[in-house]
Design a protein that fits this description.
Elements: H1 9-21, H2 24-30, H3 38-47, H4 49-65, H5 70-86, H6 92-105, H7 121-127, H8 133-139
């Protein structure tokens, strides 16, 4: 049994596996969770403060070991973008990809997260009192 403030054995296995491929579902399965619930458990584990802190700590160690900084990544992306635009055949999609990666690194773009809603439509509408039921349904493309 883990002491307070320490990862449980399952959580340690989860973190070890997660650091190898950054796939929370596979990591949960490897840690011994049911494949049926591994997706939810994996996502939940990533929100647990102890697990998140351990992953962040290990990522920092990896970045340091490989001399990776935000500046070095941005410089590499600048080089890739310049090479893509300066190629004999301009690689505009590669240039755009480099620009988007830079924006993500700088926090200007956040990847959309999948979320699951709970409750009924009526309940969710009650949570958004500024919209009428019809407006809310229209915004959420559910028809009126």
């Amino acid at each position: 049994m883990a002491k307070k403030g320490e990862l449980t054995p399952k959580q340690s296995i989860f973190v070890n596996e997660f650091m190898s491929d950054f796939n929370a579902t596979r990591s949960a399965i490897s840690a011994g969770y049911s494949p049926k619930t591994a997706g939810a458990i994996g996502a939940e584990n990533l929100t647990k403060p102890l697990i998140a802190a351990e992953i962040k700590k290990r990522q920092a160690v990896l970045a340091d070991a490989h001399d990776i900084t935000l500046k070095s990544l941005l410089d590499e992306l600048d080089e890739a973008r310049s090479a893509a635009l300066g190629a004999d055949t301009v690689q505009s999609s590669a240039a755009v990809a480099a620009t988007m990666a830079k924006a993500k690194l700088c926090g200007l773009i956040v990847d959309k997260q999948d979320t699951k809603a709970s409750g009924t439509v009526t309940h969710m509408i009650a949570e958004a009192p500024k919209l009428s039921k019809e407006e809310w349904l229209k915004v959420h493309k559910m028809g009126a």
